[in-house]
Amino acid sequence: MAVLEIVDLIKNYGQVPAVRGVSLRVEDGELLCILGPSGCGKSTSLRVVGGFEQADGGDVRLDGRSIILLPPNRRPTAMVFQKYTLWPHMRVFDNVAFGLRLRHLDKALIERKVGEALELVGLPQARRRYPNQLSGGEQQRIALARALVLEPGVLLLDEPLSNLDARLREEIKRIQRRVGITSIFVTHDQEEALSVADRIAVMDQGRLAQVDTPEAVYDRPRTLFVADFIGRMNLLPATYLHAQNALRVGTALLPGPAAAPWPDGAALTVAIRPEDLHRVTLPGPTAFSGHVDVVMDLGHYRQIGLHVPPVTTLTMIVGKDDHPASGDAMSVAPVRYLIYAGQTSPPTQAVDTLATEASPPEEVRLDARGHATEALSERPARG
Ligand code: ADP
User: pLDDT tens across 207-220, in order?
Assistant: First the structure.
């Protein structure tokens, strides 16, 4: 069993607050991704867990026991860094065996464990090679073997895939599953996080904006920051019209949720995923009409920029059999959207508003006639 808890972690670099009160629990065998833009405090959080930075406040616990005062080499954690940091003058075998030799294990046991670790990462044939005889991806696998051979309670991966191919991503996930090791994976790449993580912790300016499954982070981003950061999202300024329980978005009028919490005239933001915008032939009040601006062929589908005066350019997708051309008139209507309180540009939370204090978005789904479907517009529990 290895359950890792990060409790109210704080880390400052002089005047710079890097981590501002992060609490997280990583379950036994779980792969949790910390995701966020550059500088949001991801690596610092990980380095504190690994013991490479000292925290200014908070605690790190493994199975309920604080490990925050232990030096890195005595922690039940092992870290794989972005730069694979293999010793260039040592053969692969010796790189992987290094930590075991420090532990004074006997030779036959070291031989067996290193063999198993190299087998696990799919490079048993590389044992006699030097790091410069390996590709970047292979070096990173060896770095992973070197971490796993120590049988740590928790595996820490700091952007281990930067500039490497997507196959290694699948490989790391497969190995993590097979070993069943509790892991934290840091990345700024949302696609990477969505594809490997059991859960994603989205960080924004030293704080957690949302901790959820990849599906939940994508389908119901908790804040405007997350909505903007994860995947493509059309963010449109809107005004709430209380009498009609509707949102004025440019020339369109979108139904409000069943129990709308805003006063008349409230400034809101409507968030629509490109795949939730559908073409309509008879534009009703929920439609946006405009002209095709750019068409991008993305293999199995096309991404379209639709210029909709006066609001914006909407991003939407159509199937590969649909061939709109630049300049074509087109009307689209949403089938689902989220509504956030407030309008900010760029859309981020005010720096000192705790993400957990922000109201979650309201969700509306529309039927084919553009009417809100009651059953699905229920509000999420307020947390
Ligand atoms: P991320 O991993 O999300 O890119 P970091 O954790 O590396 O972010 O950095 C968080 C903040 O702390 C940034 O503002 C960064 O400039 C600052 N920072 C990171 N490391 C140091 C350091 N050793 N000294 C001073 N400031 C640092």
Answer: 999 999 999 999 99
Which CA distances in Å does 100 have to 66, 103, 151, 186?
25, 5, 10, 26
Structure confidence at residue 218 (pLDDT): 95
Domain with CATH 2.40.50.140 in the chain: 225-377
Of residues 299 and 310, the one with the higher pLDDT is 299
Q: Closest ligand 1 atom, CA of 38? A: 4
Ligand 1 pocket check for 361: Cβ under 6 Å:
no
For the chain, the average pLDDT equals 89
Q: How far is the CA of 10 from the centre of ligand 1 (A)?
A: 13
Torsion of CA 286, 290, 294, 298, to 10 degrees: 30
pLDDT in tens, 314-330: 999 998 888 889 999 99
Architecture of domain 225-377: Beta Barrel (2.40)
Annotation: CATH topology of 4-219: Rossmann fold (3.40.50)
Whether 39 is in the pocket of ligand 1, judged by its Cβ within 6 Å, is yes
- Rounded to whole angstroms, how far apart are CA atoms 336 and 219? 10
Ligand 1 pocket: which of 11, 44, 47, 48 to mutate (most atoms within 8 A of CB): 44
Q: Is 206 in the pocket of ligand 1 (CB under 6 A)?
A: no
